[in-house]
Amino acid sequence: MGSIWGVVMHAIGGLCAGSFYSPIKKITSWSWESSWLVMGFFAWLIAPVVVAGITTVDLWKLISETPFFVLMWTYLFGFLWGIGGPIFNLTMRYLGVSLGMTVSLGSGAAFGTLIPPIVDGSFLMLLQTTQGQITFGGVLLCLVGIAFAGYAGHQRDCAVANKKGSHKEFHTTKGILITFISGPLGACFAYGLAAGKPIAKEAIEIGTDPLWQNNAVLLVLLLGGLSSNFILCIYNNWKNSTSDDYFRKDSKQVLNYILASSAGCIWYLQFMFYGMGSSLLDERFHFASWTIHMSFIILFANLWGLYFKEWKLVAPKTVRALVFGLCILALSTVVIAWGGSTL
Fold first, then answer.
1. How many CB atoms lie within 10 A of CB 40?
2. Distance between CA atoms of residues 160 and 167, nearest Å
3. What is the rounded CA–CA span in Å between residue 128 and residue 109?
4. Closest CA to 8 of 319, 293, 329, 268
5. Which of 214, 226, 241, 323 has its CA 20 to 30 A from that of 125?
6. What is the C-alpha radius of gyration for the chain, rounded to an integer number of angstroms?
7. What does pTM read for this prediction?
8. What is the pLDDT of residues 253-299, one digit of tens each?
């Protein structure tokens, strides 16, 4: 039953991840880098500090007594994950939004799920168990669903580009090659959580509810992500002369801060629920959390696209391919939950 509730938590997190950008789209008169930095402060600093402070026993003592190398690796993986954001945007430029997002998240799911058990030596051992075989089968099923969704997304983006005459920037070869960079960097979030396991274990030992064990880890991990994104955004503020965005005196300034902070809080919720979902899975299968999370992001992002009629220009067979892929993604999460609960 715990695994089922873990998947439910991941579903809520995926919904948050697929929805956080809506407030940012309503921000006016600010550059992208200014909106992103304000959002980031709430997503990667303020919300993590508040939530971890409330849910973790003796948070600052726990952090201060954590071995340096645990903190360093957790922070470093967060920093690398933050670098992956701009590269992720390049994949969408060359492959289109739908295919770029699907391929990048799909490659991130593969790297983030399979590398941890390979590195810690548990991969072959898990393959010899019924639970392991079912769980890895669910991971492979997820990648099949991603492939169908990615194909449909590519067809959609081509149809939109041909309609609007804006297909010149599409470059499939470049886009696919870039995913081999953005995928591993995106998966660094999963590696950071793995590196921070000693923090989570110590949090439980000093009295923290196991459901919240990852909140202290997220604090260190997201600080790394904030660092790399801070450098990027401040550089772009300087390059584009947009530093005055933060200090403008107009009627929309307060609303912009409210929208950006709201987006940041929604963004953080995805990983708060991710941490809760991971803690509810069998410890041996925590690595599968990344696949579940990525699949739900893809699932909800495309469902929003269908709801807002973003697929109205494509052929019916393309929509059927998308729906089939989304059904496979949904099925994969059920299989993974089943694997985690099999005795």
1. 25
2. 8
3. 22
4. 293
5. 214
6. 20
7. 0.76
8. 999 999 999 999 998 998 888 888 877 766 665 666 777 777 787 77
Angstrom distance (rounded) from CA 20 to CA 228: 20
Euclidean distance between CA atoms 185 and 83, whole angstroms: 7
Show the CA angle centred on residue 300, arms to residues 296 and 305, nearest 5°.
150
pLDDT for 333 beyond 50: yes
State how far the Cα of 230 lies from the Cα of 240, in Å rounded to an integer. 15
> What is residue 340's predicted lDDT score, i.e. its pLDDT?
58
Give which of 113, 89, 109, 110 is closest to 101, Cα–Cα. Answer: 89
Six-digit token pair at 303?
Answer: 């469902």
Of 291, 219, 274, 275, nearest to 60 by C-alpha is 219
Closest CA to 336 of 133, 55, 94: 133
Distance CA 130, CA 208 (A): 32
| Distant-in-sequence, close-in-space partners of 119: CB < 8 Å, separation ≥ 6 | none
The pLDDT score that the predictor gives to residue 215 is: 94
pLDDT value of residue 49:
96
* Whole-number pLDDT of residue 229: 92
For residue 73, what are the CA distances in angstroms to 18, 192, 219, 228, 339? 28, 7, 13, 15, 30
Confidence of residue 95 (pLDDT cuts 50, 70, 90): low
Cα separation, 336 vs 296, in Å, equals 13
Mean residue pLDDT of the chain comes to 81
**Could you tell me the sign of the dihedral formed by the alpha carbons of 201, 206, 210, 213, in that order?**
negative
CA 157, distance to chain mean position in Å, is 22
Whether 270 and 14 have beta carbons less than 8 Å apart is answered as: yes
